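Standup notes
- DV: blocked on the single-chain target, sequence here:
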Amino acid sequence: MENEKKKQNLSRKKIVNSAIVLFANKGFESTSTREICKHAGVNLSLIPYYFGNKDGLYTSIIESIINYGLTFLKDEIEKANEIDGLSLEEKAELYRNLLLKYSDFLYSDNVPSSFVVLMIKEQAVSHSKFSEIYSQKIGILYKTLRRILASILNKKENDKAVVFEVSSIIGQILSFKIMDRATLPPLKQDFYTKDDMKKIKNIISSHIETSLEKLNILGKSASKV
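- DV (later): unblocked, structure below
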């Protein structure tokens, strides 16, 4: 009984991993369930068994990873709902911590690089399957960061300076994850080592501090102390 359960979990995991790769490479519409099962080396009947259909598989993959991320960022997101009661220094610290925790989530073992590629490609397609989930789920992170930064800069959340700055820093955080094919070959590696990950996180942290300094947030918060 226990072996059968392990076998089922392994088959399900193979389907999910193969689907992420194929959805990232070809998109949702151009990927068939037959291709996914062939790539995973499992029976075609297992997708309906575990997920109902291709839509169910796709939704399950996206929601499981995004829900994990939102749970990971829950404390910072909740604190941002009380942004008006925070000092400038506290707002800057919250902005920094949310970005750092997002990078920790993004570079954890639970988030494959193919998922990040899929996420970015699907955002570029209007009315994609991902758009529905994005508007309900991942948009929370961007909205929260814009809310915090807008409060710090005393601007509206839809101000271009706020929107562009948040998009810029998120792009920098994503860069190593989506450009591994350009980064790893010169290093003669197939994946990032633990030491690489430490260096990447230090670079990301430096980008965040530079962003805060550029906006004069650090100077402003220090002057308030």
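- Follow-up: The two ends are 62 Å apart (CA to CA).
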